[in-house]
Write a structure and sequence with these properties.
Layout (H helix, E strand, L loop, with lengths): L5 E2 L14 H10 L4 E7 L15 H14 L5 E9 L8 H4 L5 E5 L22 H17 L5 E2 L16 H14 L3 E5 L14 H9 L4 E4 L12 H11 L4 E5 L2 E5 L2
Parallel strand pairs: 1-2, 2-3, 3-4, 4-5, 5-6, 6-7
Antiparallel strand pairs: 8-9
This protein binds zinc ion (2 copies).
């Protein structure tokens, strides 16, 4: 089994809140000696269109990734993916869930229609019992996993982003979601974007990663880059953490098949 550097969660300018060209991302990834680099831009959805690519961009996006894959095949393994929003009341688009991609990341960025990771709507954290917010969030993660449509769980505990932490034990709040993730054969990403946010740590927390390890849930690495500088962000920190918890291999995907590698 080879040792590889992997970064499976990266955005593009098509989502309207990232910068840099796709080619610049690849050049940077090669410079950082990343072996496997996945583009996983925010998939189109009939909700909140401001922060994601449009349906009309699907073909352009997929072709752009495949062209780069060919152009750089000697230097880096480039994968095609989407980060898909899971919302309980908004249907998933066929163009996305049936797309011919290497993998899909399932993410929860909304509780009902509340964009809880958007600083614009931060006031809502203080209008409701914090434990109930966390319960609703993990219920959504559980349903996302149960849908069976996704390969990777995006930023498992994103709800901690602004440091509104629950009073109840986080492991108890997350346990049903994690059990369903295992049942659905999904992979957990260790996402370094949290280091750039008020919570100032990776998603998921060490506690939840330990629980994932106990449940034998595989992991992968991601920077959730929205700019060239964020590619491979805090990589050394996340690999150290993964090793501390006990992990000795990670996963990436080709055509939805899991490939295990050392890190
Ligand atoms: Zn984004
Ligand atoms: Zn996300």
């Amino acid at each position: 089994m080879d040792k590889k550097r992997v970064d499976l969660h990266n955005h593009t300018i098509l989502c309207n809140h990232a910068s840099g060209t796709m080619e610049e991302y690849i050049e940077k990834a090669i410079e950082l000696k990343i072996d496997v680099f996945g583009f996983s831009d925010h998939a189109p959805m009939d909700f909140d269109p401001k922060y994601r690519m449009k349906k009309e961009h699907i073909e352009f996006y997929e072709n752009a990734v495949l062209n780069l894959q060919k152009k750089y095949e000697k230097d880096i393994d480039i994968l095609l993916a989407y980060e898909v929003d899971f919302m309980q009341n908004i249907p998933l688009l066929d163009e996305v869930v049936k797309a011919d991609v290497d993998y899909l990341i399932g993410s929860v960025h909304f509780i009902d229609e509340w964009g809880f990771d958007n600083p614009e709507f931060i006031g809502k954290y203080e209008k409701q019992n914090i434990d109930d917010i966390w319960i609703d969030y993990f219920k959504s993660i559980e349903l996302m996993a149960k849908s069976g449509k996704f390969d990777v769980v995006g930023h498992l505990d994103l709800i901690k982003v602004f440091k509104f932490l629950p009073k109840k034990d986080i492991k108890i709040l997350a346990q049903n979601a994690l059990k369903q993730i295992k049942k659905s054969n999904m992979v957990l990403e260790i996402n370094s974007a949290g280091f750039r946010k008020p919570i100032a740590e990776q998603y998921p927390s060490k506690q939840l990663l330990e629980l994932a390890y106990e449940l034998d849930i595989p992991i992968t690495f991601s920077s959730d880059a929205h700019s060239v500088e964020q590619i491979g962000f805090a990589y050394d920190k996340v690999i150290t953490l993964a090793k501390e918890v006990g992990y000795n291999k990670i996963v990436f995907f080709k055509n939805k098949e899991k490939i295990y590698t050392k890190f």
